[in-house]
Amino acid sequence: MIRLRLRAALGSCLLAGLAACGSGDDSANIGDNSQSAAATSAEGEPSGAMANQGTAQAQRLNCSAINARRGEGPDVVGITIGMPAELALQKVACSDPAAVVNTRTRQDGSRWVEVEGGSQHLEVQLEGPAQDQRVTKVTRALSFGEGEQPVLADVTAQLESKYGRLLRYIHSTDPISFYSMRRADGSLFTDSDDPLFNTCVNSSLEAGCGNLRVHVNIYRARQNPELVARMHVFIDHVLYGERVRQAASQQARAADEQRRKQEVDAASGRRPTL
Q: Count of CB atoms within 10 A of residue 106's CB?
């Protein structure tokens, strides 16, 4: 798990982080030293120099260069589906140079990056072969205190400007649930009553679905439903995620087969006393 403690800094541009651009460049080592931007202790707590300064500062990352790199497809704080793990972690670190990034690895080798603090909670899922992990899912939650709550109409306009046409899926008042999705031919869905739209929301592996999904939940302020109290943005690509998981599984099987063969070769000729 990665925990990034961020200072609250919403300001007047409520989606400044969401509107950041990602990077499609696989060169992730942008800094003045060669250490990983995700260098941490095994327990997920910063150690050494990182205990007293942010990851970007400790690693002397060139955040201007990192944040300037643009990627393909929708992003959350500059992180896109398919982005190399190292670059994604560097972008997370550069979202607040004073913040600390910590990471843990699951038994299957995948990593779940959790970023929280201040007014946001960010999660990034990294999967794939060990030496080529990629982003398969990004989620971000933002909360707004009194005096910072934006107008609902303004938020939806900003989201549509960033992600394309939003279609309401669940007709509830809290949360208001939207999807921005494309068909397999690349065209945006424009009608929430389209049977294929509803199919793709629930299972984007069906024929005709574009697989890449942007899902937004908006929670209205209790005292004024025209204002936004909280919002969640989710981006995933179901088919891509399946592919990278299969690649990781195949690599793990191949490594295990190689290990067993080496053990058999090493044991050849041994003659126990019977």
A: 11
Measured CA to CA, the distance from residue 104 to residue 246 in angstroms comes to 21
Other beta carbons less than 10 A from residue 51's beta carbon: 11
Give the pLDDT confidence of 181-202 residue by residue, as tens digits: 999 998 999 999 899 998 888 8
Instruction: Say how far apart CA 106 and CA 190 lie, in whole Å.
Output: 39
- Mapped onto helix, strand or coil, the DSSP state of residue 23 is coil
Instruction: Spell out the alpha helix ranges (H) of 118-268.
Output: 152-163, 195-202, 238-267
Angle at 95 between CA 90 and CA 100, to 5 degrees: 70
Give the integer Cα–Cα distance in Å for 222 and 144: 12
Global pTM reads 0.74
Token couple for 83: 């982005």
> Which residues on adjacent β-strands are paired with residue 135?
126
Strand runs (DSSP E) across the chain, as ranges? 75-76, 79-80, 111-117, 120-127, 134-143, 167-168, 176-183, 209-220, 228-237
50 pLDDT higher than 70: no
Report the distance separating Cα 49 and Cα 100, nearest Å. Answer: 11
For the chain, how are helix, strand and coil distributed in percent, rounded to 5?
Answer: 30, 25, 45
Tokens at 214, concatenated = 């942007």
Total residues found in the chain within this entry: 274
